[in-house]
Specification:
Layout: E1 7-11, H1 12-16, E2 21-27, E3 30-39, E4 42-47, E5 72-73, E6 80-81, E7 103-106, E8 109-112, E9 117-119
Antiparallel strand pairs: 1-8, 2-3, 2-9, 3-4, 5-6, 7-8
């Protein structure tokens, strides 16, 4: 049973039907977009912005993965990120990371498990 510190993000079924989902959240008192996706049977979420110019990864295209499906990719700059760690693999921002958001999956529902996060309707 989910406790009151968990905030529902989506169902696993919704996630399995889409390449990724976005949710409007407030994180550390800032309104931002979150991206949620499944990769190699695990679920991940990050604050949806590239550290280079703080644009959403999907700002130019409705996609967050590169053509190989192995890396997250900023559609504006082409910067790529490890989907499991959020670490940038591109030279300009190499080693910097996307802001990860903790998730928990319970009985087919994926929840945000962050203290400083609220959902925005």
């Amino acid at each position: 049973m989910a406790n009151d510190k968990l905030k529902p993000a989506c169902t696993r079924h919704e996630l399995d039907q889409a390449d990724f989902l976005t949710r409007s959240i407030q994180f550390k008192k800032q309104p931002v977009s979150a991206i949620i996706f499944a990769f190699e049977d695990s679920v991940y979420a990050y604050v949806n912005h590239c550290m280079h110019m703080h644009r959403p990864l999907n700002c130019e295209q409705d996609a967050i993965f590169d053509e190989t499906g192995k890396y997250l990719r900023c559609s504006m700059h082409g910067f790529i990120f490890d989907p499991k760690t959020g670490e940038c693999q591109s030279p300009v921002c190499f080693g910097q990371r996307l802001q990860a958001l903790r998730l928990e999956e319970i009985d087919g529902t994926v929840y945000f498990a962050e203290k400083h996060l609220t959902l925005i309707d």
